Amino acid sequence: MFLTPPSGAAPAAPGAPATAASPIGMRTWLLIALALLAPFALYFATAKSIVSIWNSSETFAHGYIILPISLWLIWRRRVNFAAWPPQPYWPALLLIAIAGAAWFAARLGEVQVVMQYAFVALFPLIALAVLGRRLAGSLAFPLLFLLFAVPFGEIFVDPLIQHTADFTVWAVQATGIPVLRTGTRFELPTGSWSVVEACSGVRYLISSITLGCLYAYLTYRSNKRRLAFIALSVVVPIVANWLRAYMIVMIGHISGMQLATGVDHIIYGWAFFGLVMFIMFWIGSYWREDEAPAPAPAAAAARDAGTGAQPGTATAGRILPVVLASIALAALWPAFALFNERANTSDKPVVLAPVAVSWRAVSAVSSWTPRFMTPDANFKGAYRSDSGQAVGLDILYYRNQNNAKALISSVNRLTHSDDEWHENGSTLRVETLGSRQLAVRETRLLGPQGAMLVWHWFRVGDYDTASNAVGKLRQAESKLLFRGDDGAAVMLSAPYAEHADEARAALHAFLAQHEGAIEAALAATRQR
Hints:
It is a single chain. The chain has 528 residues and is of the alpha+beta class. The chain folds into 2 domains: 26-155 and 203-340, no CATH class; 360-527. Helices cover 50% and strands 15% of the residues. The protein contains 16 helices and 11 strands. The protein has helices spanning 26-42, 44-56, 66-76, 80-83, 92-109, 112-131, 133-138, 140-144, 157-174, 202-219, 223-254, 263-284, 300-307, 313-344, 468-480, 500-527; strands at 180-182, 185-188, 191-194, 360-361, 377-384, 390-398, 422-433, 436-447, 450-460, 463-465, 487-496. The strands form 2 sheets. Strands 4, 5, 6, 7, 8, 9, 10 and 11 form an 8-stranded antiparallel β-sheet that branches. The protein has a 3-stranded antiparallel β-sheet with strand order 1-2-3, covered by helices on one side. The two termini are 51 Å apart.
């Protein structure tokens, strides 16, 4: 990320004016602009999805300023365009093809974040192909800084919540206050607290890393110092969020739950984060390094004058083939994706086949409902065996999936932070059913009716899996082979009083008797 210009040419000082006329003419600038603007038109839906997340999530609202900052950083090094005129770098076309293929593969599996990263990666790769190694290398950080525009980081929310809850409970107990913990919720003598997504610190972490990388680039010239400061910008916000959570709980406890429980909770959090960032940047300023002196631009203008060529004329002719090749490669994958999508789209409505269940049907076993995107068809049933074992069955079926309706997505959860039910741990299990084994994700839920176990897995085509990654790969494979994207989430739930093994026995008994019926119903639904 912090590449330096190739040997034999001194780096340009940011903001230094060029001391010779730029050898780049208007036609060359237009070709460069055409090459870099083409992905916006070719991948418009992906670009729109990025902006949509910026609009809907405060965590990623900073995305709006990434492109202006990148352009400003390039402007500060504008003298480099005179020092190293564009020289086509043809091997970069292979990288453009790989980025396009990654976007296409992610499109098949509806992995939006990979599509977005592949789309944004096209800009530095096209710049490398059109501008060449020297010029693009001197602008490496401004070009790669564009990757921060991708709204990524929600994958860290759950572990951050867990670690924040661990530290807060430990710190409160170390203070001498008794704590009763249930998952990420805990009770003090003065009141109840819960570590939810807003308390995870993911916003602080993303902001700190973005600012840390920018500060390290502008403040240091040594890559070691830059990497050290970036590492600090990762660790500091995590620890600071732990301390923030602990202090909020203590303020609430000492004030009898009168302070740090409403809007002042949020204000205090951002004020504390701002103070921590200021201290971190202030300390980092003691190791700042002066910028290198400005070099004399390359003798490109003198060379053009000596040969009688007009500035920019030769450059435009030289980069035109690579510009056209870059655009053609970038356009190949959206065109293939459109063809594949039309071939895999089914106009048949989903009619979920009935599941033959031998247990006695009852009204319900709990009030819990999974919080998934709205499926094309769903089934919800509750059953009780002759021995009194109670099991709930939920099936959510999806067809013609997209970002707003997907079987596997970070949005799909068993519970929501506002639900009366909340998760209390999850693990992977492998159940032996006769001669076959079935992997399931086991999750413990706590709610108003007590404790409950949920086993769930995905059915993608003819394949069962409990892994999101494997499920996405199977979906991509099925669409690549023009077999459609049908898939279903299957969930079994069972309440228990004291021991989870009671629920496990009920779930296993139901699954052992009805796994074949569930599989037959899903297969029939797909064939319909």
